[in-house]
Amino acid sequence: MYLSGLDDIDRKIIEILTHNARISYVDLAEQVGLSRVAVKARIQALEESGVIEEYCIIVDPTKIMGRTISTYFDVEVRPECFQQAVDILMNCEEVTKLYHLSGNSRLHVHAVTSSQEENETFINEVLYQLPGLVKLDTSVILKRYKDIIGLKL
């Protein structure tokens, strides 16, 4: 099982935080049967061990004000240009996730932009300008049905 080194209380803390990362230490402590100080210490230990890596917002175009475009790109570059392409994409504020895929120097890029025009600018000024670009496939997310972050405990 994933995360086999955790006890039942750690698992319960993670489950609660997964559903409400803004819960107070006092409320969390009541739910797991520990003191506020003990819960805070456990959360800190989970953070230090890398089990809890960061707290973040999920950009879901159906749940936020204004219009956003969430797009996936599959990018292939020549092998000698791969690291340079990674470095460029790592420094783009539009890029929210970047994965190295199996195959010929392939990257999977998630990007979020505020409009179709900004998305087009990102494609033209960043992606099409990547050194050694061989292939670019694009998919725009129309609707999210399921999007799980992290592991099920």
Architecture blueprint of SSEs:
Elements: H1 8-19, H2 25-32, H3 36-49, E1 69-77, H4 82-90, E2 95-101, E3 106-113, H5 116-127, E4 133-140
Antiparallel strand pairs: 1-3, 1-4, 2-3
Helix pairs in contact: 2-3
Descriptive report:
By secondary structure, the chain is an alpha+beta fold. The chain has two domains: 8-49, Arc Repressor Mutant, subunit A, CATH 1.10.10; 61-140, Alpha-Beta Plaits (2-Layer Sandwich). It is 36% helix and 21% strand. A four-stranded antiparallel β-sheet has the order 2-3-1-4. A hairpin with a 4-residue loop joins strand 2 and strand 3. Helix 2 (25-32) packs across helix 3. 10% of the residues are buried.
Summarize the structure in short:
One of its GO terms (cellular component) is cytosol. The chain is of the alpha+beta class.
Mass-distribution shape = elongated
Q: Give the neighbour order of strands across the main sheet.
A: 2-3-1-4
> What is the correct CATH architecture of the largest domain?
2-Layer Sandwich
Q: List segments where confidence is low: pLDDT < 50 over at least 5 consecutive residues.
A: 59-67
Q: Given this structure, which CATH class of the largest domain is correct?
A: Alpha Beta
Strand content: 15-25%
Question: Roughly what is the average pLDDT, rounded to an integer?
Answer: 84
Total domains, how many? 2
